[in-house]
Write the structure tokens for this entry.
Amino acid sequence: MTAVRVLLALVGPIALLLPVAAPLRILLVLAALLTVPGVELVRRLAPEQGPGGRDRSGGRLRAVVLTVAVSLGFAAVTGTALMLAGAFTPVRVLLTAALAAVLLALLPGRRAAP
């Protein structure tokens, strides 16, 4: 399961290999920026998930909205930090998001409550 999450986190950087104006590249990068960092953080911190990642409260819509909000916040903070450092490029923001998601996917999960 971890390998699948790492592969999903790398979709954005892999999309950078496509030509610049390719519609598929634009869609993949947009989808990666809207979901990649947030999905790992929400997966780790969502209190409504039980053992095995099962949703106990039926809050799938809440998880999707939280995932997009966290991802947008991550992109804004990362972009601002890189801009202040004088190192901003959109590619660096995408690579930072992918790196954060891969690191979160590789960290051991928290233990379930008894």
Q: What stands out?
A: Residues 60-84 form the longest helix (25 residues). DSSP finds five helices and no strands in the chain.
